[in-house]
Every structure is written in structure tokens, then in C-alpha cells.
Amino acid sequence: MTPEQIVEQLQTLVESDKVKTDPESLAFYGTDWTKVYEPKPLAIVFPKSIEQVQAIVRFANENQLALVPSGGRTGLSAGAVAANGEIVVAFDYMNKVENFNPIDRTVVCGPGVITEQLQQYAEEQGLFYPVDFASSGSSQIAGNIATNAGGIKVIRYGMTRNWVAGLKVVTGTGELMDLNKGLVKNNTGYDFRHLFIGSEGTLGFIVEATMQLTRPPKDLTVLVLGVPEFSAIMDVLKAFQEKIDLTAFEFFSEKALTKVVEHSDVQRPFESRTDYYALIEFECINEQVADQAMEVFEYCMEQGWVEDGVMSQSLAQLESLWRCREDISETIAKWTPYKNDIAVSVSHVPAFLTEVEAVVNQHYPDFEIIWFGHIGDGNVHLNILKPDNLAKEAFFEKCSEVSNWVFEIVQKYQGSVSAEHGVGMTKRDYLTYTRSEEEINLMKGIKKVFDPNGIMNPGKVIN
């Protein structure tokens, strides 16, 4: 079929104005936050129902046409990039939140529901959806599920996987599967729901999700502590976890904070400066918890682990302190950063960071490294800012070398080359640093079962 014939056929499967081929739409919907690959999709199609998704997949399957799912396109691994003439399936119009069940504390979401939309809906019901991250205002639920998104609350609430009570998915042959149906207990063999969570659209498309909600946290309070030595952050984490149930434990460097303060309206948490900062969030439900927090803080000061600190006294101050951490990604975007999302066991983080910094500084001393991350669950974000005098192409070429060195260190510590942003294309060729050959072969076999003709997001995760 010619491209024109493909577009004409797509227009018979959805409303005619829900197929886009103009250059602006192709560029906008054909990529994500990665800048490595140029988007070159054939067309963008916007289904409005599960039946339309099935029709699109069957048409693509019959004609050997590649499909790429498009959510909020906030990914950092090129998982939603269409660089080879694929048809992009965008779920923006499948964005209803419905069928709230107050007893089960579940709600049914279309794949295009924005994360913040679900959070606000839960709040209106007096409940809470705890998966949260900087892109919550644009990321979509199906994309979150397809990448098993994490974020800032994992230490308390876990990953997206923990909150998926049921899924409806359309496989690579157009078959609709209704998985788990919202059950808490369902011990009847293989749970295919969990195969699709984190599969990045390579097995099929998520077309509906039953999401679990929980009670909202009460009286959230934030501590920001100045820590002179990175290794001491782990001592601080241990000390607080022994006394208090934490909802978040984040870290960021002085270099990161300096960028945020210089380029936004964020204020420093306190006047003194240290090389690193820990941000600790917890429910301060009574004076006893507040007293315990201050006792641990004072103990950390006595041990020399902490030099200064501040505790939020209002919601406005809490939000201001969080911005010290949450505004980092947006602030450093102007430097076209090389970004790497990696994880090791929590206890290995200090040694891991030390080794990564050493190898980068040895080979590229002019590279500025910005560290931050969800250190409470072992997930750190390595950011290297592009020098002003270095072309983007040359910078990314050098960063390919950096990736090899970093992933060798990841493998040494038995970590993961992708903690929460997926594999996509940018990390596909590095999968062997985390997964064995036997595992990868089994993954290929599973894809063959659900997507026998290889049309679902080809070239992502595995070759």
C-alpha cells in the first residue's frame, strides 16, 4: 500500500479528522523528551474507543505496518519515538475517569487520562493516587503503566505496578484481553497484567486501566538537610527510617540547587551551603512525630552527618522546599543534558556515585555533573550538561562512551540500566548489562506470542 492509501484506510477506521499528516503533528506526536532521534512517522491516528484501537491494530497486522503508542511523550528513552515511518496511535481522546467504586477504592481510567487528572479526581473522592513525579501534569496513565513509572513516593507507595488492579489490552493481533478485573486476590496462574506493565507497548496497547486508590496522607512535613559528605546521606536515611515512616527521601547536589536558584524564583532552604542535600517527607500527625523528627535531626547534627537544616511550617513552605528538588530537570534542560536513570541497591549508592564521577572526570574533566534522585529506593539520576563550546552531535557521541562506562559500573553492582524511565531505543543495546541472555531470549519469545508479526512498537526494549 502507498502512504496515501494507508492514510485513506485509517480515515475509515476513525473519524476522518482524527488522522493527522501535517508536519507539525508528525513532529509533535512522533517523539518524546529524548532528542537523539528525528521523528519520521507516517501518520498520527487518534482513536476514541477500544473498538477503534482494535480496528487499527488489525489493519496494521494484516498489512505489516508498525505502530507506536503515544501518551504524554514525557519519556526519556525514546520509547514513544516514531523514527522509521510508523503509524503513531495517540490516546488523547480516550481520557475519561469513570466507574469509581468507594468500597473497592478503584476507578476506571482511559489510557489518555493525565496523571494529575487522576490525582485530582481521587482528591475529590477524599482519596489519594500516590504515584507522583515532575511530569504528572502531562504524562498519561497508559504511558505510566507501560513504563512502570516510579517517582518521588516509591519509598512509601511503590511503583505504578502496585496500583494497577486491572487492565484491558489490545494485543498485536487485535485481540482484547481483560486482565484481573480489579480483583485483590486472583491466584489462577500467570498474571498477564504484569507482563504488560513495563512492556513499553511492545506486546500490545493498554486501552483501559482499573486503578487502586488509597487514603490521603495527613499533615505532610518536609525536612531539607545540608549534608557535607555523600556517604552521610545513607546514615541520615537509616536514622530517620528507624524512627519515622517516610513518604519520600530525595537528594540533590549543591550544583543542582545553584542552577535552580539562579534560573528560577526558588529560594535556598537556608544560608549555609553543603555539597549535598537530603529532602525528607513524612506525615507529622502529632507532636510526638514532630519531636521524634527533631531528635533524629539533632542526633545527625551531633554525628557530623548534617550541618544545617529546615523543617516546613506551612503548606506553602513545604511546596517551596520541594521545588528545590522538583525544578531541577526543567532548569537544566537549557543545557541539552545527557540524562541517565539508573538504580543499584540502596546501600551501594555512595560507592556507585563515586566510581561514576571518577570515570567521567578522568575522561571529560570539562563535563559538569548534576546529581539528584530518589535515593531512598536506590534510583539516581545522572545529568551531564553540554559545554557551550561543544556541538550537540559531538556531545552525544562522547556521552555514548560515558554510557558504556556507567553501565559497566551498574553491572558491577548488579544494578539496573533503567530504574523508572524504560528501555526504549536509547537503552535497548545496553539491556545485557542488567538482563541475562536467557532472560532476553524469553522476552523475545513472549513478544512473539502476543505480537507474532512484530508490529507493536518495534525496535523498542529488544531487537
Automatic annotation (TrEMBL):
Its EC number is 1.1.99.39. It catalyses: (R)-2-hydroxyglutarate + A = 2-oxoglutarate + AH2. Gene3D superfamilies: 3.30.465.10, 3.30.70.2190, 3.30.70.2740, Vanillyl-alcohol Oxidase, Chain A, domain 4. Its cofactor is FAD. It comes from Spartinivicinus marinus. It comes from the Bacteria. Belongs to the FAD-binding oxidoreductase/transferase type 4 family. The keyword rRNA processing does not apply. GO terms for biological process: respiratory electron transport chain. PROSITE patterns: FAD_PCMH. Keywords: FAD, Flavoprotein, Metal-binding, Oxidoreductase, Zinc. It is an enzyme of class 1 (oxidoreductase). GO terms for molecular function: (R)-2-hydroxyglutarate dehydrogenase activity; FAD binding; metal ion binding. Residues 37-216 form the FAD-binding PCMH-type domain. This is D-2-hydroxyglutarate dehydrogenase. The keyword Zinc applies. Homodimer.
